[in-house]
């Protein structure tokens, strides 16, 4: 099912709101005019009653002769004079002896002025409104009733109603068209951004959405989307570099492995040569396996999915385990490998992952450093720093800022193997623990690399 365009939905909502406003306004105006006209008619009847009372107070004056034509217009108004018990004393010509007031109205009129509405009276087929009030006439207490048609009031209300029925829909149509056009103008930058977004792809790096200089939500939306595109482009570029570097690193051991196997198949002349070829191939396979595991770990850390089994880990035990694992390599290289940490320090972490990170640091120190390799732990602002230092030449100064980037190696390390992923893995493990990784050169020579992880 096709959804209604947002421009039409905005215009429809605007039309509904305007229709409600116009209807409420029209009803209010109609009600106010009705109230004002009724008040004016009541005031006119009061004035007319006073004038008629003064007129009929003169000796010999009657309603039929004196009031008609002066204060009572034939076909539009009328008057009647009644006794307190309801007998008609005098009346204008059309009324005759037909009593205008009911018994209840007559009773209330004895106490004061009463207003009432009539659909018709004798000789007058139009709706009217009358006033009944007690008066004194030559010492006699009577009830005077005067009335007038509501024709003028009805005509004024009908005229207003007709004008509202004409002007209201016209105003509604104009407001709806204006809302439609305004919605189109407001959404034009969105359509422009949509068309540009439709053209952007991985093959058009650097393309951005047009940002309208409106200073409102649309400008902020465009700026936010452009920032998102920049992040996505940066992530895509990193992924491309990652794939390219991984392919480059995988190509070398695969080529060596293929060469060794081809030599073994074609040129091995004795079981000893064949075993040597298989041994060298096994080394390359181990290198491929390690590289694949490293790539998998980094990929999982990028997705925030590096699994951890957090538990309190004693720093002394952690460092001792790493020293025990690499002790034989240090002995073969004629190097000293020692652990130095105070009792009582512990971290909240995954023991195996932390051993892997420290193992990478020790491997780098044994591979590229010199002298004693020292492992230590120290408290630092709610965290524990796990250091691995050596006494070699340290890092090239220009390399320190990118030491933990993927597939980056110092110049002297490029000739000694390795994929440049060791320190990247260290940083991934540290950040998965909510910590960080750092590297620096020691003042008296050698490198110092450490990870800071939360203390237990």
In short:
The protein has helices spanning 6-56, 63-67, 103-111, 151-199, 217-267, 271-302, 315-332, 351-368, 422-432, and strands at 77-82, 88-91, 114-118, 128-137, 140-149, 311-314, 337-341, 346-349, 373-380, 383-389, 436-441, 447-454.
Overall description:
The chain has a five-stranded antiparallel beta sheet, sandwiched between helices. It has helices at residues 6-56, 63-67, 103-111, 151-199, 217-267, 271-302, 315-332, 351-368, 422-432, and strands at residues 77-82, 88-91, 114-118, 128-137, 140-149, 311-314, 337-341, 346-349, 373-380, 383-389, 436-441, 447-454. It is 54% helix and 17% strand. Mean pLDDT is 80; it is low at 411-417. α1 (6-56) runs antiparallel to α4 (151-199) and α5 packs antiparallel against α6 (271-302). The radius of gyration is 51 Å and the shape is rod-shaped. The chain has 456 residues and is of the alpha+beta class. The protein folds into three domains: 8-154, Beta-Lactamase (2-Layer Sandwich), CATH 3.30.450; 217-302, Orthogonal Bundle (Helix Hairpins), CATH 1.10.287.130; 311-454, 2-Layer Sandwich (Heat Shock Protein 90), CATH 3.30.565. The chain is built from nine helices and twelve strands. The longest helix has 51 residues, at 6-56.
